[in-house]
Amino acid sequence: MSATRPTLKLTHSGALQALDGALRKAEELGVPQNITVVDEGGNLLAYVRMDGAKLLSRETSMSKAITASSHRQPTSRLDPRNEIKLAIAGGGRLTNLEGGLPIIIDGHCVGAIGVGSGTGEQDVEVARAGLAAIGAEDQKP
C-alpha cells in the first residue's frame, strides 16, 4: 500500500477565473455579492466584496465555501436536524445557507465557492457561474 496519492490542486489562477465568472453573473443580475473561493482544505484563495454587497455576507460567503469544501456537497444539503450541532462543532464556520458549492474537477473536490448577499437562489446562480468558468462539475442543490 502506498503512503501517498496524487491529487489535483486548485491554482490561484483557477480561483481567480472562478471569481471572475461569478462576478460577471452577479453584475448581469444586478446583485452586488461577496464571493469567496477556497481550496480543498478551506483555505482562502480568492475573495471580493462588490460595491454595495452586504457587509456581514462576507462571513456567510466564507462559511458557505468552507462548508461546501468540507462536506464536498452544496451547502443546502446538510441535515437540518444537525445544523446547530455542526455550527457549534465547526466553531461557527459551517452553515446550511444556500450559496456554497464544491468545485469538483475530474471527480475530485479541489475547493469550493461561497456566495452571499443576494437571495439563496441568486447566490447559487452566481456560484454556478463560477464553476462554469473553470469547467467544474455542477452538483445541483
From TrEMBL:
InterPro entries: GlcG_carb_metab_protein, PduO/GlcC-like, PduO/GlcC-like_sf. It comes from the Bacteria. Signal peptide: none annotated. This is Heme-binding protein. It comes from Flaviflagellibacter deserti. The lineage of its organism: Bacteria, Pseudomonadati, Pseudomonadota, Alphaproteobacteria, Hyphomicrobiales.
